[in-house]
Protein 1
Amino acid sequence: MFDLDYCSYPDCKKKVRTGSRLCEDHQSWQSVEHFSSLMTEKDLIGDIKAPGLTFKNLDLRNKRFIDCYFHHTQWINCHFDRSIFQMCFFDESVFMDTSFTKVNMKHCVFTDSVMTNIDWHGSDLISVNLNNIHAVNNNFSESDLYYSRFIAAYLKDVKMIDCNLKRVDFSASQRKGVNFKYSNTAEAYFDTEEIQ
Ligand SMILES: [Zn+2]
C-alpha cells in the first residue's frame, strides 16, 4: 500500500508517492530552480554537475566557470558576456539566442551541440572543441580561435571576420555563407570547399 500525495509544483494536480515532493514532470524544475539561483548569485561557479536541464533568460555575465558539467543542456536567451570558462563540458547541448561576447574560454567542449543565433564576438576561445556542431547565424568576429576545432561542423551564415585562425581545424566541415574576411585562413586547416 502506498499513500499518495500531490505534487507541490504550483497548480500541478498529479499524485506522487509519499516521500517525493514533486511528480516526474517537475523533478527537473526543482533542479533548474536550484542551479539557476546558484549560478546567478555566485561569481565563481566551480564543479557544478547539471546535465540534461533547460535554462532560460539567465544573466550570467562576468562569472567564472571552472570544471562544470553541462552535458545535454539547453540554454535559451542566456547571457555569458565577459565570463571566464575553464574545462567546462557543454556537449550535445542546444543554445539559442544566447551571447558569449568577450569571454575567455580554454579547453571547453561543445561537441555535437546545436547553436542558433549566438554572439561570440571579441572572445578568446582557445583550444575549444566545437566538433560536429550545427551552427546557424553565429558571430565569432574579432575572436582569437587559436587551436580550436570545428571538425565535421555544419556552419551556416557564420561570421569569422578578423579572427585569429592559427591551427584551427575545419576538416570535414560543411560551410555555407561563412565570412572569413581579414582572418588568417592560410594558417587554418581546411579539406572541403564552401557549399555554394
Ligand atoms: Zn507536478
Protein 2
Amino acid sequence: MREDYEFQKQTSRHPDKHEWVKLVERIRHNLTGEIREYFTTGIFKEESQSVFIWPYEEGNATCDCNLSEHWKFAGDIEKELFAGTPMPPCGHALYAVNLYSTKGKLLHEGFKEEALSAKHFEKGA
Ligand SMILES: [Zn+2]
C-alpha cells in the first residue's frame, strides 16, 4: 500500500516510468553483530502496490561483495571507503540485511531483530 512508503521525488531529467520509494538497509556484520543503516531507493510496483525486492532475495544485494560497499558508505566514509580495504569474496557469510521502507515496513528479513518503532525511521532518509 502506498501509505507504507515515502516516495522519492523525480530528480532525473530523463523520463522514468517507475516511481521510486525510500528504503533503509539495516546491515548486520555477522562477525561483530554491529548493525549499520544504508539509505537507498527501490522501484514501487503499481500493479501489486509493493516494492521490487528481488535484489535482496536473489540479486546483487544478497552478496557480500556488494554489501561491503553499502557497509562502508553507512560508516565512516573517510576512514573506510578510501582506506583501500579489499572487497570480500562473493558469498553470503559476512553480512545479513533487513530491508525496510523509511516508514518502517519490513520488506525483507535477513536476520531476526526486535521490531523497530516508526519513530526510529524518522531521523534518516
Ligand atoms: Zn559478489
